[in-house]
Amino acid sequence: MVNFLEKNLLPFAQKIQNNKYISAVSDGFAMILPVIMIGAIFTLLASMQISPYQTFITNTGLKVFFGLPSKVTTDLLALYTVFGVAYSLSKKMDISNDAGIVGTISVIMLLLLIPMGVSKVLEDGTVVEIAGAINTDFLGAKGLFMAIIVGSIVPTIYNLVVKRGLVIKLPDSVPPTISRSFSALIPAFATAFVFAIVRFAFGFTPYGDANNFIYSIVALPLQALGNSPFAVIGFILFAQILWFFGLHGFMVILPFLQTIFLPLSLENLAAYEAGAVLPNSIVYQHFGTYVLIGGSGALLGLAILMAFTSKSQQYKQLGRLGLPGAIFGINEPIIFGFPMVLNTMMIIPFVLGPVVAFLIPYILQVIGILPTLIGVSLPLGTPVLMYGFFQGGFPIMIMQVILVIVQMLIWYPFFKIADNKAFELEQGKGDE
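User: That's the sequence. What structure does it adopt?
Assistant: Structure tokens below.
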């Protein structure tokens, strides 16, 4: 089985990891993480459902104040995403010097695909047409898929035009900034021409525009996939198997997780802000809140076992070294120090732990015992209990504590075998 996976799975995973389009999506989302966090934190401050707190911020005007940043961050996330993806992809092509220009052109193309004019229904039922307005529905979570597509296509077209030498070249005496602006004119015009055709052509389809087409054909099916627990388990298994072979599994699947699950998180966050029922049972934060407690492999429980129950000095020292990092979700010292890579004896808990860490809270959530996660985006390295508090308060924190105990129970029999063997070797009683 190991040989089969190494022969067939690893090349496929490495192609994914090395694909510049996929990695550009991941890098693009990393660029806009501050934007996502600003919107999420201010939404949380405005919407925490604690009656005395809500009364206080409402009476003092702070509720309106806290609601302002989300209007220009979360509600316009597609604009920042298309720039981030296009900028990151340009850096991976031969147009890295024009990355800023390409990112700006991508924003223009995204706006070009959104039809002008919106309708507003007044209180008396009258419908008012506002001709010069832009519909912002597809500038937020609904537009993320289109933003990724546009952010991938614009640098590709731009690069093709540049490679064919279709640029305006000015003398070397012209300042580089001005020269670069002129050289971008023909590629920018070619890109705008292509997207204008797309915008015009979709006007003759039942969808009306490209955004509705992408949302209906691509976004909705992918979001339906994201709400399936079987899809989450599939991602977990794939990531853990890659880790077994020494590849950073979650870095390989991260672009897919962000593409599928981040829109679901933003929908939950918007519903939470509006005081409505959270629509999605699974969001991107399920991984950080439950699956990745202690990092890939659910290793916080193992780190505690090593630090406090080891008989061997080898594992005791490794546990004390790795425990602080595991609390913050950083577990490379344990993965490579234990090691987990190509360790067939440890593959069962290494794969089983994260799956169980997802299934237990998911089942409790479905039957109504545990609240649905709000979907607040937090940076890598947020400590375990703090991460849980931001996603749903004390019930989620308690669930995280329970999951750490479950981790310890899963790891205990496997760890004790390794610990006893290491102890015997240290005592000179075992075989090397």
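The mean pLDDT is 87.
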